[in-house]
Amino acid sequence: MNVQVKSSNGITLMPAETKLLESNRCIFLEGEINQESALEFVKSLMVLTASDASKPVKVLVNSPGGDVNAGMLIYDAIQSSIVPVQMFCLGRAYSMGALIFLSGRNGRYMLKNSELMLHEPLIGGKIGGNTSSIKEISDSLIKTRDKLNKIISEHSGKTIEEVEKETDHDHYYSAEESVEFGICDEIVEFSKIMEG
Question: Rounded distance, CA 18 to CA 1, Å?
Fold first, then answer.
């Protein structure tokens, strides 16, 4: 979607995401999380940090999840950002999308009909190979699960055991349940996104 922007040079069309990035300091994290979307996220965060490191950035999440390594890049950028990053769940934040959302340090907000989903990491594609390579894959998956559960524990205030129980299957959380479990701070109206 394009929007009209008036300037001294007349009226031009600009993608809505670009306009919202500039005027409202909003970064959209939508669709599958992969290396491309992770790098785009980091670039946008760098642009907003360079323009004004004191003003908060709003990350608007609507994602089914995706690649763990790509998600961890986004997580690292948020955690080490000098700019306050506020998280907003618009509709859904599943799997890696939920982990990124709940890691917000400057406010984690959900619209009232949004939902989160947490689970153990999954193996994608066909698995094949000898016993040693399959064991290596299994060991790596267990390490990844433990790392993700530790992150969830740190950001929710729950014990590792509580997190393991919650993530041993696909667990869907309404906005109210997300607040109760400590993975969301507040249920808000859409107008909260437009503030500032």
Answer: 10
Cα–Cα–Cα angle for 165, 179, 196, rounded to 5 degrees: 140
- Catalytic: 95? yes
Contacts of residue 30, defined as CB under 8 A and 6 or more positions apart, other chains included, come to 60, 61, 62, 63
Is 100 in contact with 116 (CB distance < 8 Å)? no
In this structure, what token pair is assigned to residue 19? 């306009």
Name the H helices within 5-104: 16-24, 35-51, 68-79, 96-102
Of 119, 155, 156, 178, the active-site residue reads 119
Catalytic hit among 44, 95, 103, 156: 95
pLDDT 10s digits, 35-89: 999 999 999 999 999 999 999 999 999 999 999 999 999 999 999 999 999 999 9
What's the start-to-end Cα distance of the chain, in Å?
23
Classify 1 as helix, strand or coil: coil
Residues 6+ apart with CB under 8 A from 141: 121, 123
pLDDT confidence bin for 3, thresholds 50/70/90: very low
pTM of the model: 0.85
Q: How far apart are CA 185 and CA 53, in angstroms?
A: 23
